[in-house]
Design a protein that fits this description.
The protein is mostly helical and 212 residues long. The chain is built from eight helices and two strands, in the order H-H-E-E-H-H-H-H-H-H. It has one domain: Arp2/3 complex 21 kDa subunit ARPC3 (Orthogonal Bundle). Strands 1-2 form a two-stranded antiparallel sheet. A hairpin with a 3-residue loop joins strand 1 and strand 2.
């Protein structure tokens, strides 16, 4: 889902850089008082896991790629604000150091993968958690990545490189990721269960996610 440079309108790339920065600044103000040594250590673990998982990607039609994103996973474990920060850090490192995703389109990529997926995925998880935590986790991962793909498709579909192909781009992005998103949901559940088996207190994770 890493959009390279040259596909988006320059104004769009700039607008999403400002918008993503504003959202992350607001998120920082929300989590500043709730940071503990444990949450900082967990932040590092989650960011490293998301980074490793995102490096395994493959191209799909439309000039972007498909892969495990981990926005919902990070949000469920860390809370949506700190989770968005974790994925934003990963996306920035990949773009600036490894060339995975454009530097000019960094704001758009952060918006799609860190902000949209983290907040949408967490909202779905929170809405379903009382019914079934496993279902809520899978649904959060699935809906989150599909929403992120829709956001990326919207950006690409109205950009000059895809003039007149808006519906095609949206169909490819949303349809492809809706199918692949099932795997995202399953991996999100697997990641949270793995942390629980490693001794991370899931009750504390849930508390941090709700109150961060």
């Amino acid at each position: 889902m890493h959009t390279p440079d040259g596909l988006l309108h320059p104004w769009m790339a700039g607008a999403f850089l400002v918008l993503s920065g504003a959202v992350l600044l607001a998120a920082a103000s929300r989590v500043r008082e709730s940071l503990t040594e444990h949450r900082i250590q967990l932040f590092a673990v989650v960011a490293a896991a998301v980074f490793a998982a995102q490096m395994l990607n493959w191209p799909i039609p439309g000039g972007t790629s498909a892969h495990f994103v981990g926005g919902a996973f990070a949000a469920i474990v860390l809370g949506p604000h700190l989770g968005a920060f974790a994925v934003a850090l990963v996306v920035a490192v990949q773009a600036l150091i490894f060339g995975d995703g454009g530097t000019l389109s960094l704001g758009a990529n952060v918006w799609n993968m860190a902000i949209v997926q983290a907040y949408v995925g967490y909202a779905v998880y929170a809405a379903l958690e009382d019914r079934s935590e496993a279902l809520a986790t899978v649904a959060g991962g699935w809906v989150g990545i599909t929403a992120a793909a829709a956001s990326a498709g919207l950006q690409l579909g109205v950009s000059p490189g895809f003039g007149g192909e808006f519906l095609t781009v949206m169909a490819v992005m949303v349809g492809g990721h809706a199918v692949l998103g099932i795997g995202e949901g399953i991996l999100t559940l697997a990641g949270t269960r793995l942390l629980a088996r490693a001794g991370v207190d899931t009750e504390e994770l849930r508390f941090g996610a709700v109150h961060a």
